[in-house]
Prior knowledge:
It is found in: Cytoplasm. It is an enzyme of class 1 (oxidoreductase). The protein contains 14 helices and 2 strands; from the N terminus they run ββαααααααααααααα. It is an all-alpha fold. It folds into 2 domains: 8-310, no CATH class; 316-383, no CATH class. Strands 1-2 form a two-stranded antiparallel sheet. It has helices at residues 61-76, 79-89, 99-105, 121-135, 140-148, 222-232, 239-247, 251-254, 265-283, 292-310, 316-324, 328-331, 342-360, 369-383; strands at residues 31-33, 36-38.
Amino acid sequence: MATTLVDQSALGSQFDEKNVHNHVTKDTNEITLNGVSHNGFTAPEINSFGHSFRAYDAESERQKGVEEFYRLQHINQTYDFVKKMRENYEKLNRAEMSIWECCELLNQVVDDSDPDLDEPQIQHLLQSAEAIRKDYPNEDWLHLTALIHDLGKILLLPQFGELPQWAVVGDTFPVGCAFDEANIHHKFFKENPDIKNPAYNTKDGIYTNECGLENVMMSWGHDDYMYLVAKENGCTLPSAGLFIIRYHSFYPLHKEGAYSHLMNDEDRENLKWLHIFNKYDLYSKSKVLVDVEKVKPYYQSLIEKVAKENGCTLPSAGLFIMRYHSFYPLHKEGAYSHLMNDEDRENLKWLHIFNKYDLYSKSKVLVDVEKVKPYYQSLIEKYFPAKLKW
C-alpha cells in the first residue's frame, strides 16, 4: 500500500507532545506555538461558492446533494458495517505505490460531501500543506500530515473497491454508542439499524468513560483507512500526526465537543494540534490553485528524506545473503561456524538455497531486461527507500 514512513527525528521539528499545552491556545484564530503567535493565514468568511464554510443549510443544488449524502451515510454506517470494512481493508493487499503516486491518483477524486470545494483533491492537499508550511516552517511533520491526510479517498477508485461516497467521505462519528445530536443532519440516524440495539444506545455504549479514542470504532471512511495504512506500514509520525489523520473529519468532537467523555489524556493533548490543523484544512480551500509542479520538489524531498531515515526493510536473511554470499569457507565447507549465533544458523539455510541459483544460473540465454524490469522495480520500491546513500 501507499507506504507512510515518517521519523519525527528526521524532520527537524520543534514538536514536543508533552509540552504542547504550553504553546497552543484554544482560540484557533490566534494560535501560539513555541511561544510565537501565528496569524499569517487569515480564514475567509465565505467559500468559493459565496456561502459560509460548512453551511449545510444554504440553498443550492450542491447542498441538496450534500444532504442526500448524509442521509445515506447515517442510515448505512452501522457497527457491523464498520467492523467488516476494517477487517477487509486492514489486509492492505490492493496496491503498492509511493506517497506522491497516491497524491496524483487523487486528481480523479471529487468529494461530494464537501460544500466548500469542487476541485480535485490534490489541490486541497497542497492548499492545506502550503498554508501550514508558510505559518509553521519548522514543523515538517505537520506539512507532511497535511499532504497525506486525505489520501484515503482513493477508496472511491475502482482499484480500491470503488466504495460509495457515504463510505469514504463526510463527517465521522463513533459507532457502538448513541449518536450525539452534534452530528450534522442528526435526523437521518433514526433509520440506522443500530438504533434498535440497546447496547449501542447509551452515552458510552460498548465503551467505557475515558477509554481513549484509539479503542473506539469510528464510522468507516478515508480517515480510518489512511490511519490503518500509516499504522500498518510502521509510520513513525508523532501521535499528533496520526491523531489528525484519523480524526480530522470528526467534527462533532473538535467543533462541538461531543464524545469528549471517551477521550483520554493523550487524546486531549493531541486535540490541540487538531484544532491548529483544522483551520488550514477547512479554510484554505480556494479557487486559486497551487502550482503542483512548482511545490512538488519540496514535498518529494520530504518524502525521500524520511524514507532514507527508515532504511532498507529486507528481512535479516536478505541482509545475511548480501553480506555472506561469497563466504564459501562457511557455507560450502562449514568453517568458522563456531562464530555463528542462532539467527546466523537460521539465515544460513536461506543462503544455501540462494547459492544454488547464484552459482548455477549463469547462462548464454539472456533475460529480456525491459520485460522483467517492472517486477523488480516494484520490489525495489517495496523494500528500499526512494534513494540510497552509496
